[in-house]
Specification:
Blueprint (H helix, E strand, L loop, with lengths): L26 E4 L2 E5 L7 E5 L1 H14 L17 E5 L17 E5 H7 L6
Length: about 120
Amino acid sequence: MRLRPNQVCPIHKSVSCCGRELMPNPKFIRLGVQRVEDPHHPRGYRELRFRAEMRKLLNRKISEQNGICPICEEKFTDYNDIVPDHKRCKGMGGAWRDDHPDNIQAVHWWCNDEKGSTRMD
C-alpha cells in the first residue's frame, strides 16, 4: 500500500521517507504575505498577498502616486473605483501572480479593464 504525499508514515513518523520527497512548506514573510519559490522568476520567488494585505498595499500605493491613476493620469475620486494592477502581468511574460510591491500600482477599474494584458511603459 502506498502512502499519500502528505500522510505521515506510521513507521518513521515522517512525511519524507519511503521514497517520498519532502513537500516544501510555503514561507510567510509576514502574516498575510506568502513567499513562493519560483526558479523562473528574476527574484527567485513570488509574493502572494491576502486581501487585507493587498488593501494595505493599495492604500500605500495611492498615497505614493499622489492619488493619480498612472494610466489615465486623472485623480481618484471614489475609493470603490480603485483596483490593484500588475505592471508585469501574466500575458506579458510575468508570473502567474506576483503581488510584490514593485509590481503593483493603483488604477481605476475601467483603466485596468481597458489595459488588459498590455504593458504600460
